[in-house]
Automatic annotation (TrEMBL):
One of its GO terms (molecular function) is rRNA (uridine-2'-O-)-methyltransferase activity. It is an enzyme of class 2 (transferase). The gene is rlmE. The active site is at 148 (proton acceptor). HAMAP family: RNA_methyltr_E. This is Ribosomal RNA large subunit methyltransferase E.
Length: 199
């Protein structure tokens, strides 16, 4: 069965089960496989619009859930949403004003695609690198990180950087990922914490 059938299946399922997009099933799959979120974790979702991952997160944890996106996010009950760029000091301060510590950072964001594969992949990797850098600023030691990216010539550099900062790093294609897509998730567990400058 082809990718169009899969796309329709997850799309229809999301509508039936009340999720804002089919991407919800990607996070549910990752959680089932890797158990990245515990019941009391505080979680920050970068690039959270339209909010399907926030819906899943709210069901997985009783901790605080914060969603950040350049675009407005329709309210999700029990979730803090922030409109803005997570790479700016202003938005980073707003995030930390809501939470004393962060256990998990997730990022399912994609840049606007041009259709030019190498250019789009470079921009996607750059966005993933920014998410990783920010996660390493706010995560507690032992925390977890998940980021979407696209496999290609710069993917290994991103993967290596994740391995420098987390004890366990896996690459995973979810069941809801469309067939033929180069999309992959880096699932990084057990943040090492800040390293000495001499490392």
């Amino acid at each position: 069965m082809g990718s169009q059938w899969d796309a329709d299946r997850f799309y229809k399922k999301s509508k039936r089960e009340g999720y804002r997009s089919r991407a919800a099933y990607k996070l549910l799959d990752i959680q089932k496989r890797f158990e990245i979120i515990r019941s009391d974790d505080n979680v920050v979702d970068l690039g959270a619009a339209p909010g399907s991952w926030l819906q899943v997160l709210r069901d997985l944890t009783d901790g605080k859930v914060i969603g950040v996106d350049l675009n407005p996010i329709a309210p999700v009950e029990g979730v803090i949403t922030i409109k803005g760029d997570f790479t700016t000091e202003k938005i980073q301060s707003r995030i930390l004003s809501h939470v004393d510590f962060v256990n998990v950072v997730v990022c399912d964001a994609s840049p606007k695609l041009s259709g030019q594969k190498s250019y789009d992949q470079a921009r996607a990797i750059a966005l993933s690198e920014l998410a990783l850098k920010y996660a390493c600023l706010i995560l507690k030691p032992g925390g977890n990180f998940v980021v979407k990216s696209f496999q290609g010539e710069m993917f290994k550099e991103l993967l290596d950087e994740a391995r420098r900062n987390f004890y366990s790093v896996k690459v995973y294609r979810t069941k809801a990922t469309r067939r033929g897509s180069s999309e992959a998730y880096i699932v990084a567990k057990n943040f090492r914490g800040f390293r000495d400058a001499s490392d």
